[in-house]
Amino acid sequence: xxxxxxxxxxxxxxxxxxxxxxxxxxxxxxxxxxxxxxxxxxxxxxxxxxxxxxxxxxxxxxxxxxxxxxxxxxxxxxxxxxxxxxxxxxxxxxxxxxxxxxxxxxxxxxxxxxxxxxxxxxxxxxxxxxxxxxxxxxxxxxxxxxxxxxxxxxxxxxxxxxxxxxxxxxxxxxxxxxxxxxxxxxxxxxxxxxxxxxxxxxxxxxxxxxxxxxxxxxxxxxxxxxxxxxxxxxxxxxxxxxxxxxxxxxxxxxxxxxxxxxxxxxxxxxxxxxxxxxxxxxxxxxxxxxxxxxxxxxxxxxxxxxxxxxxxxxxxxxxxxxxxxxxxxxxxxxxxxxxxxxxxxxxxxxxxxxxxxxxxxxxxxxxxxxxxxxxx
Length: 376
Ligand code: PEP
Ligand code: MN
Prior knowledge:
By secondary structure, the protein is α/β, with parallel strands linked by helices.
């Protein structure tokens, strides 16, 4: 059960404390309060966990400050839309808004290598007006003999440089709990010049203990990448693990699924699931065309397959794209062949913006059609 408060209600005010006191009378019931930022308003929601059968929803709906009470089905209890009864779940992080309407481009290195390369990337992002980056410090590799990432040692200069070039959020994969602590310590020591979005990679998509760890902390948003062999339902259940621990700042990332049917691409592009995730859940959706396609081949019209895949996701309403680039791809310690060069960045960003504008036009067209049907 979820209690949605009226937008003007102060989360620390008397209506909230009266309601929470009343709810504390029900044995075994746990409550979790969160602020939800939509496009036009911020509301407080109270999630009731445990035996909710005897909770008198109608009585609660009449209590001061309460807008409505929603009884949720067991599937995707916290992240689900529950048949359209719940609005999207948005959040603000480090001054940027993430929800099912927002749009951000995250660009950067697959694996952090040198200070010089990181600085070149950040400088280029700043030139393009982009405040969001991706940088891998901890790398899960298929072979134990491949570069595993610099780990915590690169974080101090990485965060300092991010701050210097106005990067507000860096998406960074974590493989275990201690990585979150290392990021926390390094950010604090550097004076929080930037923010971090914790990335759960495809290889950890069902590492439930790690999902619980990123869910138990409330500070950093989580970019959850679909497991390369996971049905969508299992991937969304994994997101529910994160939310059930208290952290609902989650973005679902589609990155292609592994099957030989995707050849000659690295994975089969699954971006038609963008509208499905937005319909089933309240979460924003990201697409990662770099790992989905995994090549820099281009079609006879000159457009890279990776750009085509990206445009498919964006024109379908993706809220974020995650793409790898490198100043000298031939020197990259991981995924060099699929990295965009600095010269290609401007072209890429323009191409993405064309697809986003097309999506916005299509959304307006859909809402005009819906209005016409209403008036019929
Ligand atoms: C990455 O984004 O750095 C990465 C390793 O991707 P994935 O987990 O999707 O393979
Ligand atoms: Mn990579």
